[in-house]
Amino acid sequence: MDFYFDDLPSTSQSTPKSGHEDSLMTEDTDNESPRGKSSSLSMTDIQEQNSSSKVTDISRRVQELVEKINNSRTSDQKVMDSFQDKLVAKVTEMCQQMKEHLFTVYEENSNEMQLKLLELSEVLESCTKLNSELLEASHALTGLRGVLAISQTSEP
């Protein structure tokens, strides 16, 4: 992993002037003092801060992606809920239309059956009258037959 000083986060608002780094470098290499060791430690600290900064940046990006995915899922759920609501409303509407159509058909069938039952009633009434007339005719014939039978026995 390469670390560049240009990418380092600055702790102050100003940027170092060119040549300033050179004086620090020569100063550190000229002296083998504890200050030289602290300079190399601060470079390590800077590299760790840079690594930490990158990890933090990656963590932030991952968190943003997770939030984006969750928002997308929420949006998808809203779309599905809306679709379900519209579908339920449409199915309910279609069921209502089918019920109304069924009731219309039932009414038409009822009217037709009522007419046919009226016709059947008239036919049955005619049959009853004819049956009565036939019974009367049968009784009349039976009476005539009895009269004829008596008249034939009385003739010598």
Written account of the structure:
This protein has 156 residues and is mainly α. Helices cover 85% and strands 0% of the residues. The chain has two helices and no strands.
Q: What brief labels describe this structure?
A:
disordered N terminus, 2 helices
Shape, please? Answer: rod-shaped
Give the end-to-end Cα distance, rounded to a whole number of Å: 154 Å
Total beta strands: 0
- Low-pLDDT ranges: 1-38
Compact overview of the structure:
By secondary structure, the chain is mostly helical. The chain has two helices and no strands.
List the helices and strands and how they pair.
Elements: H1 20-30, H2 34-154
